Every structure is written in C-alpha cells, then in structure tokens.
Amino acid sequence: MVSQTTSSQLRQKFDDEVAASVREKFGITNLNAQPRLEKIIVNVGIGKALENQKLKPDVRDTVISTLTTITGQKPIMVLAKKSVSNFKVREGAPSAFMVTLRRDRMWNFLDRLINLATPRIKDFRGVSRKSFDKGGNYGMGLTEQAVWPEINMASVSYNHGMNINLIFRNSNPEMSLFLLEGLGMPFAKVGGDR
Fold this sequence. Notes:
30% of the residues lie in helices and 20% in strands. By secondary structure, the chain is an alpha+beta fold. It has a single domain (9-183), classed as 50s Ribosomal Protein L5, Chain: A, CATH 3.30.1440.10. The radius of gyration is 18 Å and the shape is globular. It starts with 8 loop residues before the first helix and ends in an 11-residue tail after the last helix.
C-alpha cells in the first residue's frame, strides 16, 4: 500500500512556484480566483468482465486491490443507472469501481503518476494536450495497471486499464494546461500529438 506523507513535494511546488506563475501569466489578483486542482477521480470499468450480470470474484478482488494499492483508498462499486440492451447492461448491475482523491492523497497520487507511472508506459511520447473540457478538467487513460511500480503483475489474475480525471476549480483549458506543465506533466510535444 502507498505510504501517505503529510506534505507532497508536488503540493509544495504548486504553493511555492506554480500558483504565483499562473496568477502572473493570467493577471489574477484574487487568491481565491486562481485555478486549483480540486480532486482526482480514478475509475475502472468492469462491463466486459461481467458474466450473466454477475461480477467474477477474482476480477472484483483484482480491481479493488489495484485501486487500493495505487491510491491508498478503498474504491466504491458503481452500479448501472439504467438498462442498455445494446451493451447487455441491466439497471443495478456492477459497471465500475471508483476512487475520489482529495488533499494530500490527491497530491501524492499525481506526483507518482507524473514521476513513476507515465515514464513506464510503453512507447511513451507524452500525454495528449487535447483532453481538456471547457471547465479545464483533464482526462487520461492508462491501458494497463502494470505501469504502477507497486503492482506485482505475477499475482494479478485480471489485466485492466483505468481512467484518471483531474478536476479543477476556477479554470479553463489554457490555465489548466499551464498549471499542469508547471507541475511537470509530460505532455506530448506540440505537433507530435495524436
């Protein structure tokens, strides 16, 4: 399990350097109006692992173990809100596991994502610059859990990816991009984006 320190180096970097440079570049005079990373949501869809609307125990245990190990927090199960016959999903059937990270756990997770996980991605050329929504929130996906150094793939029975969403407050795509670049997010070079 991930050790949680009281203060992340990335949080310190944001407080000491990045926040001031964002305020300066975008002419923000009010500290409460500056963009901030509010939370990170990590989720794993399990729709393909359902068998007759039941989740296999080994899949459930693997996903819960992976998310608990990389986030330091136990995930919740998300149930389908409505039935969709094309996807063979019934209302109330398990559809995903999700973790919402805030404060120190959020900063520790982001630090490990930037410095440990993304460099281990096969043929990595940087994360997309185009994955921002209008509110400046950023979404990315990982195709397998093996990029996290704390996951022992020899003991894993189900290989899965995950979606990671960085939720910002008081932001837009330009501000969020500048902020994440300041924190060291390895974005793809301009012109080299897929």
